[in-house]
Amino acid sequence: MKKIFVLAFFLLSGFCYAQQTKPGLLMDPTEIEENVHKELNDVFLQSKDLLKLKSKYPDAKGNVSLFVTVAGKGKVETVFKSDGDITSVAFSNQLQDLLKAYHFQFSLKKGMTCKVKHEFTF
After folding, report:
1. Beta bridge partners of 66
2. Confidence band (pLDDT; 50, 70, 90) for 91?
């Protein structure tokens, strides 16, 4: 009986430790914000879809500030334009659609959401 209790204790503690140290699981809002900025600048700006969008609207040059809400497994829930120099509504809408379809390479704690303001320069 004592062996079963000790075995169950170690299995349970190992399970709890594994849950806390999942790779890619972020809980700190500043760390989430840093990762969002890094990934949008490094990965999203080099994506094929965004390059097609830039070639479709060559006159769209300037800055666009967007609020991006990230939730769950890196899914983008909402995208809102806050301000920007680009006046093309079609460009802004397609940029927002591309962001909504994007999935980040990290995940958040279950039920957690984070809103980040990011500025794009085209």
Report:
1. 81, 118
2. very high
Residue given tokens 């809980």 in the structure block? 27
Secondary structure (3-state) at 108: strand
Nearest one of 79, 77, 72, 76 to 26, comparing CA atoms: 72
Output DSSP code: residue 106.
S
pLDDT at residue 90 is higher than 70: yes
Length of the chain: 122
Instruction: Count Cα atoms within 13 angstroms, Cβ side, for 69.
Output: 8
Q: Fill in the amino acid letter for 40.
A: L
What are the residue ranges of helices labelled H in the chain?
Answer: 2-20, 29-42, 48-56, 89-101
Minimal CA–CA distance to 104: which of 22, 7, 11, 37? 37
pLDDT band of 2, cuts 50, 70, 90 = low
